[in-house]
Write a structure and sequence with these properties.
The complex is a heterodimer of chains A (about 200) and B (about 400). Helices cover about 45% and strands about 20% of the residues of chain A. Chain A is α+β, with helices and mostly antiparallel strands. Chain A has two domains: about 5-40 and about 125-185, Alpha-Beta Plaits (2-Layer Sandwich), CATH 3.30.70; about 55-120, no CATH class. In chain A, the strands form two sheets. Chain A has a four-stranded antiparallel sheet with strand order 2-4-1-5, covered by helices on one side. Chain A has a two-stranded antiparallel sheet with strand order 3-6. Chain A is elongated and about 80 Å long. Chain B has about 400 residues and is mostly helical. Chain B is globular, with a radius of gyration of 22 Å. Classes of the chains: A alpha+beta (about 200), B mainly alpha (about 400). The interface of A and B includes residues 42 and 88 of A.
Chain lengths: ~200, ~400
């Protein structure tokens, strides 16, 4: 958790955003993130994000659920407490498949939700910096991470020349911290733009 | 657009192959017909007509599944199919042809009084049997023939109307009003097909054509099971033709994104097939009532045990494990392999559904099955190829074409 300097550019059209993302990347700047009001198809590709491995995790959770169900039911019904149910064999696989299926789904679903929250750093009281209040409303907000050598004036001009309606420089916390929006920082309050 | 290759030409090699397959298949078919089909031994007769019956029903249903695919995607206003829509259209032109063969075979069985295939044809046995008597309103030659005629005729006719409407999208640019009307007319026509499809493949026809072989036994799951079996094989057939045409340098606008969606259909409906397979099996296994278990007795414990579980591996485990990954559904080689495997798997499924009841004592899979299969594959390749060459591969002026071109999964 450290404070970092960011240059923020706001766009109001995906058609402008896409070429801008491409140009910013070609120019060698590091995009921290792009905040959009809705899921934009192909933006992850344009930003060069790697494919998520959430589904691999989901597969592993699912398999764990299947194995848990199969091993525990088979142990209970064949070793621990064998019962004669309708004259069926103790190892009554077809009857267990619905339960194996349900546990697969349960493990995969719960596991994936938790993993997703972990990857996105989402939890109750976990707080992150908002770069622009309209980012979740109607603006596409591109945030570029600055280094010591970044000339923020040049970068702002570069963004503006690529269609950004509004640009600003912000020094902000890039990670998460514990807190409450209503107590220590209002998300929709007008923030002072730090002059470069 | 001008540079697109929209005119498919049937390659000489394809013709040679299809004629060779048809020739080979016809030889097997005729040899089987004269040595077995018309022999005096009833067992041999059942062997031949059963084999021909499941092959022709299988191919009619998987070609009809193409028209169902067109219908549901049209009803859902799905745009992504436009770049390759001519392929399911071309496959569905086979419905009247395979339908006519099915019709002839079924009529021969009914009017030839082959009560070893359809036990309910035996009037004396029905009169003495309270269960069959109760079903006589449904299982009788008159209803069978009328319903079969209506089924095949309406599949062909309603499908033809949908294909005909889509030709308007080749003619010339449409303004907004015309295209809205065009979409609306398409919705109405495909809805009519879907309703009829539901009344036939979704319910009555598999009961009549295949389930009535075990005249005493019934399963409400059977029709859905048959429908899904044919639909997943039909999607695989579409995938094969898409990949073949891509390989030949056609369908420039169809990309991995479209293949991914076809692959998803193959994957999802393989799972759905298993769901129905299991629901049908598990309830009967659990209740353990002799009237119901009779269907599974010789399949899980008799001669068909191997085929029965092989069926589950090929049609469930393989698609589940191989097609699960996103990269697999976008890989032309893997999808080709899986499509062939799925079509073969569901052919085997149809085999065990029909022959598992007709020839309970031993598995008959042999030269006749593969010969007749070769005949149908040959006819399919020849007619689909010809149908594709008759129309441009892309309807240039379809309102949804752009949506399909920029489609992204």
């Amino acid at each position: 958790m450290a404070k970092k300097k960011f240059v923020v550019g706001c766009f109001d059209d995906e058609a402008v955003l896409f070429p801008a993302v491409k140009k910013v990347r070609t120019a060698g700047y590091k995009i921290h993130d792009v905040y959009t009001p809705f899921a934009v198809h192909g933006l992850d590709h344009a930003m060069g994000l790697r494919e998520t491995s959430l589904h691999t995790a989901g597969f592993i959770y699912g398999i764990t659920g299947t194995a848990t169900a199969l091993s525990s039911i088979s142990w209970i019904f064949t070793k621990d407490w064998p019962l004669n149910i309708g004259g069926k064999p103790h190892f009554a696989l077809p009857a267990w498949i619905p339960i194996m299926f349900e546990l697969t789904v349960l493990f995969a679903a719960v596991g994936m939700v938790l993993t997703f929250c972990y990857l996105c750093q989402l939890a109750p009281f976990v707080k992150k910096h908002h770069f622009h209040a309209r980012a979740t409303d109607d603006l596409f907000v591109m945030v570029i991470e600055c280094t010591d050598k970044t000339n923020t004036d040049d970068l702002q001009a570069f963004l503006a020349s690529n269609g950004a309606l509004e640009t600003k420089v912000e020094v902000a916390e890039d990670g998460w911290w514990l807190g409450r929006y209503d107590k220590d920082e209002m998300p929709f309050e007008e923030k002072q733009i730090v002059a470069a | 657009m001008a540079s697109l290759r929209t005119q498919f030409e049937v390659p000489g090699k394809m013709k040679t192959w299809s004629y060779a397959l048809i020739g080979l298949g016809l030889a097997a078919l005729l040899y089987g017909m004269f040595t077995k089909g018309f022999s005096s031994d009833e067992h041999e007769q059942v062997h031949f007509w059963g084999t021909l019956m499941y092959n022709t029903i299988f191919w009619t249903l998987i070609c009809n599944a193409s028209m169902f695919f067109i219908s549901v995607t049209t009803l859902a206003q799905a745009g992504f199919t436009q770049t390759f829509r001519r392929i399911p259209e071309a496959i569905s032109t086979l419905v009247p042809i395979f339908g006519a063969i099915t019709f002839a075979v079924l009529l021969y069985i009914v009017f030839g009084h082959k009560h070893h295939i359809y036990h309910w044809l035996d009037t004396e046995a029905v009169a003495a049997d309270p269960i069959l008597k109760g079903k006589a309103g449904f299982l009788n030659p008159t209803f069978f023939v009328i319903w079969t005629t209506l089924t095949i005729a309406l599949w062909s006719f309603l499908g033809w109307r949908i294909r005909k409407l889509n030709d308007e999208a080749d003619a010339g640019p449409m303004d907004r009003e015309t295209s809205e009307k065009f979409i609306h007319r398409g919705t109405v026509r495909t809805a009519m097909f879907t309703v009829w499809f539901g009344l036939t493949v979704g319910s009555t026809v598999p009961w009549l054509w295949m389930m009535s072989i075990d005249a005493h036994w019934y399963s409400t799951m059977y029709s859905w099971y048959t429908f899904v079996s044919s639909f997943v094989a039909g999607m695989s057939l579409i995938a094969l033709w898409v990949i073949y045409l891509k390989n030949k340098g056609y369908l420039e606008l169809t990309s991995q994104e479209h293949l991914h969606d076809i692959g998803k259909f193959m994957f999802a409906f393989s799972i759905f097939w298993t769901y129905l397979w299991f629901s049908q099996y598990m309830l009967i296994w659990y209740a353990n009532i002799p009237e119901e278990t009779v269907y599974f007795k010789h399949r899980t414990q008799g001669a068909y045990k191997g085929i029965f579980f092989f069926n589950l591996i090929v049609n469930f485990l393989c698609p589940l494990l191989i097609l699960m990954k996103r990269s697999a559904k976008r890989n032309y080689t893997l999808v080709t392999f899986m499509a062939v495997l799925i079509i073969f798997g569901h052919w085997i499924d149809f085999y065990q559904m029909v022959m598992g009841s007709l020839m309970q004592d031993h598995v008959t899979l042999g030269w006749m099955d593969f010969g007749i299969l070769a005949f149908f594959v040959g006819v399919m390749i020849l007619f689909v190829g010809t149908a594709l060459s008759k129309k441009p591969l892309i309807s240039k002026y379809h309102p949804y074409l752009k949506e399909s071109v920029i489609h992204q999964v």
